Structure formats: structure tokens, C-alpha cells
User: Fold this.
Amino acid sequence: MTWRAVAPLEELTENLPLAVEVDSDGGEEVRVALVQHEGEYFAIHDVCSHGQVPLSEGDVEDCSIECYLHASTFDLRTGRALNLPATQPVPVYPCRVVGSDLEVDVDNPIPADALAS
Ligand code: FES
Assistant:
């Protein structure tokens, strides 16, 4: 695990995604949308799997984020596409609070079926 501090908690607002870029171990910058929702924090890849637009510009509701372009929604816990037109999941990343910062590990995405019920 390579945890990286990505934002002070004070920069996050409930249900308002915050777009950040996070360095990966491979030297690539990964676009991530940070979301505070109902007392939890989530980190989801900030690119819709359907049309390559930023998910951080969408609305957050019921533990999901909606793509502003064609209204597919993605589960913030698993990255699954919950409705058409998107059919492919979006990576989600582990995140944790350390002190007053949110940390994310972009090198170890959470498997899409990790929270399957
Ligand atoms: S671009 Fe996101 S649903 Fe089409």
C-alpha cells in the first residue's frame, strides 16, 4: 500500500466532489474524485467509463455519483455502473483519514466485487 495525503479534510464538503490528481508508484498522475458522503469518505476514478468525462462534476446521492453527461450512476463503494448507458465500472481506491488529512492509495484499487452482496 502506498498511501498519499491528497487533501485536508477541511477542503471537503458533504456531497460536493473534489477533483485531485494523485501520483502513482509508476509515476503516472491518476485523476481522482474525493467524496464526503454521510460521514464517510470515498475516492473514485475521476473519468466516466462511458464517455471519458469527469465524474467530479456530477451529483452525489444514495452512495453513488452521477455522470453529468448521460446520467449513468456509479456506486461510490465498488465503482459499479448502476444504470445505462455506462456498462463498465470505474476504479475506486482505498482512502483513510490520518490526522486532518485524507489519504488515498491509487496503486491498489478496490476490486469491483469486493463488496458484492
Ligand atoms: S459520458 Fe458518462 S454516462 Fe456517458
Observations:
- The chain has a mean pLDDT of 95.
- The domain at 4-104 is CATH 2.102.10.10 (Rieske Iron-sulfur Protein).
